[in-house]
Every structure is written in C-alpha cells, then in structure tokens.
C-alpha cells in the first residue's frame, strides 16, 4: 500500500507508541456506556436532582472515533462518535497533568479510536461532556477520513470537507458510512424494514424457509442467469434468478404459507433500479388468489410504514405519496389505452400491434413477440406515470407463463404488478397449478423465443413432477427489498441502498 506524506506521519506516530511500550491496537476495550446511554443517564440524574434527590456523579468509560479536536492552551475539547451518536470530551491539565495532555495532542489524530474514562458534566454552553480522567488508544487510523475537518461552531458540528462524490462513496462504502451519518441511517432503516416484513408474515402463519441458490435449472422469472460449474460433480449450475419454483414445491408438500428473503442473481444490465444481485421477498399462499394478495400487499406496506417510519405518507423523488389503502386498481389494457391510445385487445397478433405502434411513431424491436411489445409500451409510457400506489392487473398470457388464465379469457392471466413513484415494486400471480397446462406453457415459451432470449423458460421436469402430485390453488408474490428501501428512504438509485453495489472497473469508466 503506497502511503501519502500524511499517512507516513501517522505510521511514524504508531511506531513511536510501540517504542514507548504502548500498543496502538490493544486487544480489549472496556466501555461502560454508549454515548447515548451516558447522556441519558446524566439527564436522568439532573431530573432527579430537580425533584430533590442528591446530585450524584455519573461516571462512564466511553469508546469511539475522534471526530473533532480543539486545543486551547491547557485544555482540549474533542468529540467522539460511536454507533449511538456523538459526545464531547474535556481534557484538562489539572486532572491529566501536562505530560498526558501533551501526549494526547501529539499522538491522537482525527479518525483514531479512543477509550476515555471520566465524570459527566454540563458545560456553560449546555453540552453534556465527559470530563476525562484517563484515556488510551484503541486503534490508530493511518488514513485520514475524507470528512476529517469538522469544527464546532456555536455548539453545532460544521463539516468543512465531506465525502460527496458518488463514485468514491460506492467504492469506499466503509469511508462513506464513517463520515456520513445519514448513510448509516439508511441501512439501519433497511434492517428495520426487513425485520418488519418478517414480523408481518410470521404473525399471519407464514413459514420462513431457505431454498437453493445453486440450481441445476433456473426458472421462475424472465432473466438471463449467471452460470458456474461444480468441478467434482462435473455439472454446470446456475445462480438462482428466483425462488418461485422451489417455494411452490413446498406447497405440494403441505407447507401452505411459505416465504423467503434472500439474494437473486440476474446477468443483466445495471441501472438506477437494477443491480446484478439483489434482495427479494417471495411468498406463496395456498388457497389465495391475486385479489387476496393485493389486499395483503396493502396491509404489509402499511405495517412496514407504521413500524419503521411512523407515517404512511412519504416523500420520494419530489413526490408526496400516500400509501394508505385502498390503492388504485387499473387493468393493463385500460392503462395502455390512457398512456398511448392503443387497445391491446384490438391487436391480438404481433403484426397488428407492431403496426399500431409504428402508426404512433413508437419504435418496434424487430422480431419481438407480442408480449415483449406490450412490456415495452408498459415500461416506456405507462410505468413512469404511476406515481401514487397502483395495482396494474390482468396481463397477456405470453409474458406470464406461470400464472393462471383469467376465467373466460384464454389470452389473459391473473397477474398484477404494484407500482409506486413511477417504479415497479412488486409482482404477483394467481399461480398456475395444472401440470399439463404448465408443460404446454414451457413448450410454448421455448418455441417463441430465441436460445439467448431472457424471456425463454427452460423446461423443469422435476417441477412438473411436483405439480403432478397435486398443488393447491395459490397466490404468489415477489418484491424487491432494495426498491422498497429506495422508496421508504427517498433514494433515487439502488446503489444508495446496497452496501456494496457492483461497479465497473475503474479503467472502463
């Protein structure tokens, strides 16, 4: 690792500490309080004293990263930060002695981790502070953090340098988290959102399960997989693109409400809402249909908002969005009529639909099947208009090979997608449970698409065998956790809500 001049100075300090018999990276730390706990205990003591109790000293040993330092002759103020927040340290020559105060000022830098022991008090400006009686190094920071120049002005921390460049933030997420508290908050909310989903589904009798990530046959979604190889088995395997076909096997086995939260992998392009690996929720619910799943979706999103945000009205990408049910329900056919003036029911063939699109100067991809043309109309013209929560329902069969037909309409299936903020959030079906019809659909998809087309579904004989034992009617649901976190934290790119997003090599940027 090539060091800068400043890093060389810090390394020299670290070596000098060791020469003095002081370990700059000790094995143990002994904090008694977090910063927040110390402040809370001191405030409670003050309240008790106002109510007539004795004024007792609050002693604490704190540990954290040094975020600011101000030296004023025989006293030094510093702020340290731990996972709970910031607190001020007060170091004075009277208690520490000239040698120890000079030692702190010489060897401790911004970004270092320190353990400080002392008694809490409130300064004349009203800030709760630890009056330090002893301290020691916990970890010497060799590289200064990008936001190392913090200054306290009128009791407020003013940041003079910050890590704001998105490219650097995503590549060095550790530094991003260290210097940007709002980024840490995004990922705390993400954890709370996932926890709330589990609470909601567990309370309704759903069983959380785990299914294979390495699969001999990929399926359950329209996507190109990543391929790997098992050397001992001499077998090509695929990273899963969906949990669906395995979860529905469990319905056959008598587990009537199952869900999984985990990683899917799709070998596709990246965008503000796509990452090659992403976190997905899928559940399958025996004896339900897509209408019941719509209702449960509304209830789940409301529960998450109440639990994590405390409000059902959110801000996203400049829009105020009301998540209170009922959400708007709009058929795909009607939505496209409103968005582009094309009634897909009047264009039952690829040729007819393509002609209608060309008549409106809408580009048509050569050799695209009818389903892909409809999907393009939806993505380019209708989806961006769906800002308030909307269930878009009843899709063409040829882009939904795992969904059950709408009664009386062999060309349409019972499928919905949920859209919020102009972005697809979730996808759900009344699931197909007829094994002979499913086999027919697989064969149709294999013929209709080219070998490399991501819409092409491979035949899964074992899944058909499972269905042949009898699968209960059921409703299935999938939702991208990353997009949900984007929505609920008002982040416009998926890279803001994934700790370590995939990025191009630097020399390709």
Describe this structure in words.
The two termini are 23 Å apart. This protein folds into 2 domains: 5-162, Nucleic acid-binding proteins (OB fold (Dihydrolipoamide Acetyltransferase, E2P), Beta Barrel); 184-327 and 388-504, Bira Bifunctional Protein, Domain 2 (BirA Bifunctional Protein, domain 2, 2-Layer Sandwich), CATH 3.30.930. The longest helix has 23 residues, at 181-203. It is elongated, with a radius of gyration of 29 Å. Strand 1 (59-72) and strand 2 form a beta hairpin. By secondary structure, the chain is α+β, with helices and mostly antiparallel strands. The model has no long low-confidence stretch (mean pLDDT 92). It has helices at 5-19, 35-50, 93-107, 166-171, 173-179, 181-203, 244-252, 290-309, 332-340, 350-359, 370-382, 435-448, 461-468, 481-489, and strands at 59-72, 75-82, 85-92, 113-122, 128-139, 150-153, 156-159, 207-208, 214-215, 227-230, 235-239, 257-265, 277-286, 313-316, 319-322, 328-331, 390-396, 405-406, 409-420, 423-430, 474-480. Strands 8, 12, 13, 16, 17, 18, 19, 20 and 21 form a 9-stranded mixed beta sheet that branches. It has a 5-stranded mixed β-barrel with strand order 1-2-3-5-4. It is built from 14 helices and 21 strands. Helix content is 34%, strand content 28%. Its EC number is 6.1.1.6. Mg(2+) 1 binds at residues 417, 424. Mg(2+) 2 binds at residue 424. This is Lysine--tRNA ligase.
